[in-house]
What we know:
Elements: H1 2-33, E1 41-45, E2 50-59, E3 62-67, E4 71-76, E5 80-84, E6 89-93, E7 98-107, E8 110-115, E9 121-125, E10 129-132, H2 136-139, E11 144-156, E12 162-174, E13 178-191, E14 194-209, E15 214-225, E16 230-246, E17 250-265, E18 271-286, E19 291-302, E20 309-322, E21 325-336, E22 346-359
Antiparallel strand pairs: 1-2, 1-5, 2-3, 3-4, 6-7, 6-10, 7-8, 8-9, 11-12, 11-22, 12-13, 13-14, 14-15, 15-16, 16-17, 17-18, 18-19, 19-20, 20-21, 21-22
Amino acid sequence: xxxxxxxxxxxxxxxxxxxxxxxxxxxxxxxxxxxxxxxxxxxxxxxxxxxxxxxxxxxxxxxxxxxxxxxxxxxxxxxxxxxxxxxxxxxxxxxxxxxxxxxxxxxxxxxxxxxxxxxxxxxxxxxxxxxxxxxxxxxxxxxxxxxxxxxxxxxxxxxxxxxxxxxxxxxxxxxxxxxxxxxxxxxxxxxxxxxxxxxxxxxxxxxxxxxxxxxxxxxxxxxxxxxxxxxxxxxxxxxxxxxxxxxxxxxxxxxxxxxxxxxxxxxxxxxxxxxxxxxxxxxxxxxxxxxxxxxxxxxxxxxxxxxxxxxxxxxxxxxxxxxxxxxxxxxxxxxxxxxxxxxxxxxxxxxxxxxxxxxx
Length: 360
């Protein structure tokens, strides 16, 4: 009886010892393989130094790196020769272009970054970086303003006396959710004292962004043209648009909606009709902002009569001259499939002007 009890006690001791050894082994194993903070970003300075850590932020020309051996280290961005990151970072360029991705390498003053969204590699200069991982509230101003004003004039005296004047201007205010646009064009010309061109356009537009890309719009267009028999053409519309690209270097958007058009003629009978509207707006800088190409196309197609087609196009180049001043060459193309009786469908104008542009 006592032997059996001793056997049970002995078995309990053995079981306890086995349990203790297994538990100790599991604890030791878990502690060895437990996750620890990994510092995988690498920064190479032009003096040969190498820093391993985690990039926190870069702003106002200083890069801050968290390290396991010296805490947070701050270095001058201009002293950096190469950068590599293990995780995606948010990069804002000086032209306000925003890119998110993993920096693969930096060679010869250029960064190669693999974007998160489309997994493509983009390249840009180290010197073009404005900030990294900076808080959005610090990056984006409350209101972005864009404005441009252009003036052109010609005069010829002698056997032929001609004069012409051109003005166009546009003002855009952009917040996170809203965009307001106001613009106008005025053209006048005379030949031997007789008016040959007399037209003007004014427009206003409001965009409300539902997401970063999609927006709803309302717009109004007013046009007068003495030589089109057009006392006043009014177009009031609503629709939706998609902002494909938006930065200081490139912009692209498309729109579609419904519009009501009213034509008040000087001689022909007045008319009004509903129409579908489309619009494409594109501009892009080339050759390190040496030249800017722009194209705007707006069209209207009658709902009741498809012969009611209007197309308005503005295409050209802007070349910076001095600071915010630029020279502009553009072609204005207007097409009306059903003009006032006796008038041509197409009007084209070639314009060379000097302008001032604000973008901040």
